[in-house]
Structure formats: structure tokens, C-alpha cells
Amino acid sequence: MSTTLIRGAKLLGGEPTDVLIDGETVAAVGAGLTAPEGSTVVEAEGLVALPGLVDLHTHLREPGREDSETVLTGTRAAAVGGYTAVHAMANTFPVADTAGVVEQVWRLGRESGYCDVQPVGAVTVGLEGNKLAELGAMAESAAAVRVFSDDGKCVDDAVIMRRALEYVKAFDGVVAQHAQEPRLTEGAQMNEGAVSGELGLRGWPAVAEESIIARDVLLAAHVGSRVHICHLSTAGSVEIVRWAKSKGWNVTAEVTPHHLLLTDELVRTYNPVYKVNPPLRTEADVMALREALADGTIDCVATDHAPHPHEDKDCEWGAAAMGMVGLETALSVVQHTMVDTGLLDWAGVADRMSLRPAAIGRLAGHGRPVAAGEPANLTLVDPAYRGVVNPAGFASRSRNTPYEGLELPGRVTATFLRGKATVMDGKLT
Fold this sequence. Notes:
nine-stranded mixed beta sheet, five-stranded parallel beta sheet, 12 helices, 29% helix
């Protein structure tokens, strides 16, 4: 069992303190701590110490699309981004709709050693929306699935959605909905608005998202279950979630880093790197999302890390795949949009990027405070760092980032998973 002394870190951005890690556990937190001879000492002056980040929404692509990402490369990217746990979405090949597939993904995560991987189970067989998947079997499997989503597709049938919400109550699960009314978005290429009209691209109306959210918060209230809204992207969606929460209903929501920063004006470049589902929205939507994350209406930040091979993005806009990689840049974007603007402090970042996502996913051992007796899952961040995003250095297998060439603040210098350094000095160990 090894010991590590982190010296002088600002815990949640507060006063400098020391953190002593003994084996897999935080042994002590305080000033002037000493460590046994032979311990590793990490000088952390000026660095912010946070609990290990937790992502509720990651696409690792394995099994089936290892040309885009694997569990190993995806968890390496997660560690570089400060994450100690990610939830792996079900739209793999084969779909993660059985106990066997979710256990395969879970075991691959354990073997990687860089990050815990908690599989998300499909709501319906094959993501086809017609028949419930083996929700109970996945919940009782070794992977102990608690989050279920057809992400990439919407569970648009209200009866199927109601049945899923009723079913997951038995094991305190949650249905994570990709809110997109399919009939309203057929052939849609970008946000419906002034820019889509000027560019002549078929629009993706905000109401396609908002109508599904409105239906599903009502269904969740009706059956007394938990619903989570994936990648919320419009000001109207914020108001619906705020209203549902005012009723005391068990509704949670996430926002992606790219929806906190980027707008549909970027689509004027016709660069497919900006093509994403849901689409980039307006400046007014971006501001509403930031305020909602700050006041807690939106519970957490989730990356929707969506890797694609070069050929799926290096093509004309209409043929390009939707999605962006995000694990390695998420914390920097949140610092830029939320911390540096004064909307959140570092304790708020810990809440939105670790504590709340772990609680929503019912993920034990993560999202815990950096305190004596707690699992030693933590990350050190240099908030003073400024650097230009260069995807050539990514740990992810894919390079489809919308931030290439953009200067962003903050850099993860170290990540610890149960006391073991997965990243040190900004590099994978």
C-alpha cells in the first residue's frame, strides 16, 4: 500500500491544505501534514483540489465501433480530463440491452484501470423503441445498472416511456431521456432560427426538445419515478425543468460544455465539427443554460463525449455524423464559462461535475468529499494555466473537437483513482 502527500492544494478553491492518501483512502486533510518515509510528495501550490469528476454521458463506442473509441482510449481521455468515473451510453454494436453486454463493458472498464466505467442500459431492445429491454436483468447484473437511456434516439412512445419509468422504480433506477420528437426533426441539420433560414438548412425547432421534456416530467410525476433529461439545450427546456422541480417532482437535467459556450452562428462556416445532436442553439439559449446551471435548475455538466473517425467528419455538412469529443476539454470550458465569469465557484464545480452526477447515477464511491475516510478519488487543477487546444495530443482515439485552436483556461495536472495516480504532471501514468 503506497502513501501520497499532496501539499498545499486549495481544496475546492479555498485555503491551501494538505491531503494524505494511504492506499485507496484519504487518511487525513489539514495543514502541516507529514507522510511516512518513502511516500510520494506532490507539490500542489496554486492548484485546486476537487473530488474526481463523474460524467453521466459518455460514448465509449466499444463494442462495435472501436475505430472511433475503445473503453481503454476513452477512459484514458477521461483521466486526462480529471474524471474518475464515466457512464457509458448504450448505443454500441451490439446495443447494451442485455446483462451480457453491460457486463462486458463494465469488465473492460475494470481492466483499463484509468477510470471506473458504469454502463448505461438501453431502455428498449435495439434502441428501436418498440419493446422494453431487459431492465431488471441489467440492474441485477455484475454491472448493477441504474441509468437507462436510448440516447441517440428518443423514447417517443408515451406508453413505452411510462412502462420504463414504472419498471425502474423497483431498483431505484432512472430513465435518461434524449428529448427529440422525431417527426419534428426529420432531416433537420441545425437549430431552427434566423441562421438556418439564411443558410437554407432544414431547422431543428426548440419545441422538438421541449415537448418531450414536458410530456416526460408529467409522466414521471404521474408514476412517482425518476427521469433525467440528457443534454438540455434551450431556454424553454430550462423553464419546463424549473417548473417541474417547483412541483417537487423527481426530475434532473444535464447540460454539455459545448452548449454552454458555442452558438449556431458557428454553422455559418459549414464545418461539420459543429454538427451535433441536439444542435448548437442561440446566444440567448446559451445564457439561459449558464444561469440555470448556476442556480441548480440544471443539476450537472455531462460531456456527451461522441468520438467519430476522421472520415465521418471530413465531408460535406449534410453527410457528416453528429457529435463532438469532450472529456479532455470539459473542465476547461466550465472554468471559462462558469468560474471565470463568476457564476460558479470551485465548490459549485465539484457539486455539478462530481457530487450530483454520482448521486443521479447512484454511483457509490464517487462524488464523495475530499475528507478523511473517503475513497481517494480526486483531481488537481491548475486554474492559472492558459493553453491552445490541440487535438493531436488527445488521449481519445478521435479528434472531432470544436475547440481546436481556441485558447482555454485550466489544466488537469493530476488525477487519482482510489489513491493511484492515473495522471501526473498532466500526462497519463
